[in-house]
Specification:
There is one protein chain. The chain is α/β, with parallel strands linked by helices. The chain folds into 4 domains: about 220 residues, SGNH hydrolase (Rossmann fold, 3-Layer(aba) Sandwich), CATH 3.40.50.1110; about 100 residues, Immunoglobulins (Immunoglobulin-like, Sandwich); about 220 residues, Rossmann fold; about 90 residues, Sandwich (Immunoglobulin-like). It is built from 24 helices and 27 strands. It starts with a helix and ends with a strand.
């Protein structure tokens, strides 16, 4: 009798507990179902979501592999058994992730006009089936990524995926909600999608965590990107602070500064936990203190507070903050080259103390030297943990000595000239390729060939592939022989496309900057045509990242070194300067080293970059930004006339004869030529060996002794100009 009563009591308790559970219906396709997971009952995202939500929830997996949202698609979800089960489940929370299979050429090209209406019909039918005829919380998800290795990626899937994402956003907006972004957290992790479509258990975990945040509003409480720290410099004319908090949290930001200055701004965190506060323009100088407070909403506390013991208010205090000009110093090893490695280090370092300059030095965990990295590095790389934690530092002899020499000298000249604070962010990785600094969406759209297996991809420089293989050699000892090639393809490395953007540039997007100084190209000099496209894409990518389409980018032309492709590459950089607005190029052929890719004279490089910024950004019209720049050439009998900008006071350096001009006739053979300076804007080039010149070039040697300078001792660029047909 007692056993019977206990059984009845236990059954009633269980039924009561089940009745009290919050039901969550996960509606979707194969990603929701857990297709290709070895243990989908454990690892599919709804199963992982169940463990995260705990016993107070009951999560149902109603994913159907191959299902389309479109009712006239090849496998409409509304005609599947899983759809009927989802309606019968009676969920008060519904999570919808559909659309991936609608990228099939059988579907989107034919029925795209039906998509939004069909999506609304699905929502309405699930709404009607919910308890009380109303879904308490509807979550419409942006789609997870489809990666470049998918068989249909370039034949339509890539483009249709974007169109469907936009349609999903419109559906969410029509229903008065914000689409849950499950795309962004996964788009930088192609290594988690073995077949380019379905996530592995780790990918499903990221998806589950994102949906968990969408359901509970729990995004970990108040946080700021790392770059927002005490001691920082804010861009004074575009002071923006942003971060994350729990959904619906009330954010209050208080700024206090000299002369009793105080500014208070408030905003509410959105459903994805994001918030942004625009402080507008701030008076250059400081110091300021910034206090950020987040007060969780009543709705959030009702759902999460009692169970988790959450504090009602969180705060972060940033002190010793300055307002001024912020510049990013980026590229490869010549930008990373430290002040204490320079030829002028003994005089530069003792003088490197400035209250106006602050340094944010982003250092890599593993340098890309000729060595094998430890096995522990491999997983960290894939998890995008490549940079060491850092904070803003005052410019002192100790901090400046280990900072970028070019960056320091650039900032020193700006601070001295502008008499306002200058913040310098150094993010430069030795040997890095241009493609590593471009965002994935841009590469996928404009240069997808770069994303093919990197070991045999000759768009990536052979030296870079070899160095990456060396760094990643431990992969061969971790995986079975028949899995090594696949593992190497999935293993991330700083030289591979998109990696440094995803790890080092995207995290800075929250932090407004004035502009960029850039020194890179050595690792792309094998293919100037590819670099022409890549550099243009990178500039566009970064301007989009900072939402500043006119952001200035001043770059360094490769110097002199005995590498045969460099004259052509240097000239291609010259042409890029003319083609891409708001860029400027610094010439360094006069301070190169014939045997060392890392010339030790960096002070001149930083100062020349500062000339461009001062002239073009800050209105210092009397500062000449560049050495002589060729504009055009006119060819006549026995001579070529070259027209130049910035040619005032042209001469051979030190009064020596001008060297390295050459002329060629229609046979294409170049002969040494003499240059006569006719005025500040023209040069007359002649050679006794060329009667009818059609081409003129200058400094066309890998390591060149070219010596033409203007009155500010700034050198002329390598160039080649040909007669137009």
């Amino acid at each position: 009798m007692k056993k019977t009563l206990l059984l009845v009591f236990f059954t009633m308790f269980t039924l009561t507990a089940l009745a009290d559970k919050v039901k969550v219906a996960c509606v979707g396709n194969s990603v929701t179902y857990g297709y290709k997971l070895e243990n989908r009952e454990r690892d599919a995202y709804p199963s992982q979501l169940q463990r995260m939500l705990g016993d107070g929830y009951e999560v149902g997996n109603f994913g159907k592999s191959g299902a389309t949202l479109l009712r006239r698609g090849h496998r409409p979800y509304l005609q599947q058994e899983e759809y009927q089960q989802a309606k019968a489940f009676g969920a008060s929370i519904v999570v919808i992730h559909l659309g991936l299979n609608d990228t099939d050429p059988r579907d989107w090209p034919n029925y795209r006009d039906d998509f939004e209406a069909d999506y609304q019909a699905l929502i309405d039918s699930l709404q009607a089936a919910a308890p009380g005829g109303k879904i308490e919380k509807l979550i419409v998800c942006r789609m997870t990524p489809i990666f470049h290795g998918h068989s249909r990626f370039e034949s339509g899937t890539r483009d249709w995926h974007k169109e469907i994402q936009a349609a999903i956003d419109r559906v969410a907006l029509r229903n008065g909600i914000e689409a849950l972004d499950i795309f962004t957290p996964l788009h930088s992790r192609p290594d988690l999608f073995p077949d380019n479509l379905h996530p592995n258990p780790q990918g499903a975990e990221i998806l589950a965590k994102t949906v968990y945040g969408g359901i509970t509003g729990d995004w970990g409480g108040l946080s700021l990107p790392e770059v927002f720290s005490s001691g920082m410099v804010l861009q004074h004319d575009k002071a923006i602070i942003n971060g994350r908090a729990n959904a619906g949290a009330a954010i209050q930001l208080t700024v206090k500064g000299p002369n009793r200055f105080q500014l208070v701004r408030s905003v509410t965190a959105d459903t994805n936990g994001r918030w942004t506060i625009d402080l507008g323009s701030m008076r250059p100088g400081g110091p300021y203190t910034i206090k950020v407070e987040a007060k969780d909403s009543k709705e959030f506390l009702a759902m999460n507070g009692r169970q988790k013991g959450l504090e009602k208010t969180q705060s972060i205090l940033l002190d010793d903050v300055l307002a001024g000009e912020v510049w990013l110093c980026s590229g490869q090893s010549n930008m990373a080259f430290r002040l204490d490695q320079c030829a002028t280090a003994s005089t530069d370092i003792p003088a490197a103390k400035s209250d106006l300059i602050r340094l944010f030095d982003m250092r890599e965990r593993w340098q890309t030297g000729n060595e094998e990295w430890p096995a522990a590095a491999l997983d960290s790389l894939n998890n995008l943990c490549y940079y060491k934690p850092t904070v803003w530092a005052h410019c002192t002899p100790e901090t400046a000595a280990k900072f970028s020499a070019i960056g320091y000298h650039f900032g020193r000249v700006l601070a001295d000239s502008l008499r306002m604070p200058v913040g310098l962010i150094c993010n430069a990785i030795g040997g890095s390729t241009t493609e590593a600094w471009v965002d994935r969406t841009t590469i996928e759209s404009e240069f997808p060939a770069l994303l093919r297996p990197w070991q045999n991809n000759d768009f990536i420089q052979d030296w870079c592939r070899g160095r990456a293989s060396k760094n990643l050699a431990k992969v061969k000892s971790i995986y079975p022989a028949d899995k090594v090639d696949e593992a190497m393809n999935n293993q991330r490395h700083p030289y591979l496309p998109c990696y440094l953007f995803e790890t080092g540039i995207a995290p800075l997007s929250a932090f407004p900057i004035k502009g960029v100084v850039w020194y890179q190209g050595e690792s792309n000099a094998h293919n100037k045509e590819a670099h022409d496209k890549l550099f243009t894409l990178m500039v566009d990518s970064w301007r989009q990242n900072w939402n500043n389409l006119g952001m200035p980018i001043y770059f360094v032309q490769l110097s002199s070194l005995n590498r045969p492709s460099w004259p052509w590459f240097r000239d291609s950089q010259r042409i890029l300067q003319n083609e891409i607005r708001n860029t400027g190029m610094v010439v360094t052929t006069d301070i190169g080293d014939s045997l060392d890719v890392h010339p030790r004279y960096k002070k001149e490089v930083g100062e020349r970059l500062a000339r461009y910024a001062l002239n073009e950004r800050y209105g210092y019209d009397k500062i000449i930004p560049s050495g002589p720049l060729p504009i055009a050439a006119v060819f006549g009998t026995g001579a070529a006339t070259v027209y130049v900008d910035y040619g005032k006071g042209m001469q051979g350096r030190g009064g020596e004869p001008i060297r390295t001009f050459e002329l060629a006739g229609t046979d294409g053979i170049f002969f040494p030529a003499e240059a006569e300076i006719t005025n500040d804007h023209t040069l007359r080039i002649t050679s006794p060996d060329v009667a009818e010149p059609v081409s003129v070039r200058y400094g066309w040697q890998p390591f060149t002794r070219a010596n033409l300078v203007n009155s500010d001792d700034l050198p002329m660029t390598t160039f080649r100009l040909d007669k137009k047909n």
